[in-house]
Amino acid sequence: MCSASEIAALSASVLHITVRNNCSNDVGFTELNLNRFIRLRGLVIGDDSFTNVGELVMVGFVNLRSVVVGFNSFSKSSTDDDANRRFVLKNCPKLKSLKIGRYSFSDYSVIEIENVNALETIEMGDLSDKECNSFRDASLTLRDLPALRTLVFGRGAFSNCLQAVFENLPELESIRMGYSAFAFGYENTTKLVMKSCACSVR
């Protein structure tokens, strides 16, 4: 699947959606609405797709198990952030895995992850020397996620964030970060909170 018309033609009862590489990058394609796919279990988005989509909102997908986004998707600018671009993941009680490739969501300024109590793994980029830059100027709060075990943030992810909160993550085993991930911005009000997390940071 690739085009807007193919997405629109999908049955609302589909269980898995896979979007190929280099898809839906038309200037006029600015919204990806998945709300009608109430039975969705898995979402896979390839590389270099949805350049002009300003938000990805996934709320209330009660059957969703995994979300995978490839390289350089949902990214319009490699240098400038946009306060109106956001990723929201909430109220998905069966979601176990969120994986985001390098440079995806690089200019998104907002990320919200809440009430995903089965979530075990979040990976953004990898630990190679290659830049990640996902959510470069966004802040991150991960709180009250009882199953979360592993966090991986590649080089440059959240590099200019003002706040990072890791709180009440009782099963968290490790946080692995690449160079300059969570380097924080140049403001005087930056804050790092780590509370009730039995884990190692590497």
Question: Could you walk me through the main structural features you see in this protein, from its secondary elements to its overall organization?
Answer:
With 202 residues, this protein is mostly beta strands. The protein contains one helix and 14 strands. The protein has an eight-stranded parallel beta sheet, with no helix packed on it. A three-stranded parallel beta sheet has the order 3-5-7, with no helix packed on it. The mean pLDDT is 92.
Topology:
Blueprint: H1 4-9, E1 16-19, E2 42-45, E3 55-59, E4 66-69, E5 82-90, E6 97-100, E7 108-114, E8 121-124, E9 140-143, E10 150-153, E11 163-169, E12 174-177, E13 191-197, E14 200-201
Parallel strand pairs: 1-2, 2-4, 3-5, 4-6, 5-7, 6-8, 8-10, 9-11, 10-12, 11-13, 12-14
Question: Can you give me a brief rundown of this structure?
Answer:
It contains one helix and 14 strands.
Number of strands: 14
What helical percentage do the residues reach?
under 10%
Give the SSE string: HEEEEEEEEEEEEEE
Main sheet: strand order? 1-2-4-6-8-10-12-14
Q: Overall mean pLDDT score?
A: 92
pLDDT below 50 for ≥5 consecutive residues: which ranges? none
The secondary structure category is mainly beta
Strand content: 25-35%
Rg of Cα set: 16 Å
Distance between the termini: 38 Å
Overall geometry: globular
Summarize the main sheet.
8 strands, parallel
* Helix count from the secondary structure assignment: 1
